[in-house]
Write a structure and sequence with these properties.
- The protein is mostly helical.
- The chain is 65% helix and 0% strand.
- It contains three helices and no strands.
- The longest helix has 13 residues, at 9-21.
- It is globular, with a radius of gyration of 11 Å.
């Protein structure tokens, strides 16, 4: 999603975690997660599950 390109990595991950916590629309969460994956970032729960 082009509009997410200007969002910092930290803010993107924070927004994703908050969206999950608040149980926001799954499509919205998926859009954020897709951008996180496109950037090659790891989310804290992903790091823990890989251990």
């Amino acid at each position: 999603m082009k509009s997410l390109k200007n969002v910092s990595n930290d803010l993107l991950i924070e927004a994703f975690m908050k969206a999950i916590e608040l149980k926001l629309d799954q499509d919205f969460c998926d859009l954020i997660k897709e951008e996180i994956n496109d950037r090659g970032l790891m989310i804290q729960y992903q790091k823990n599950s890989q251990a």
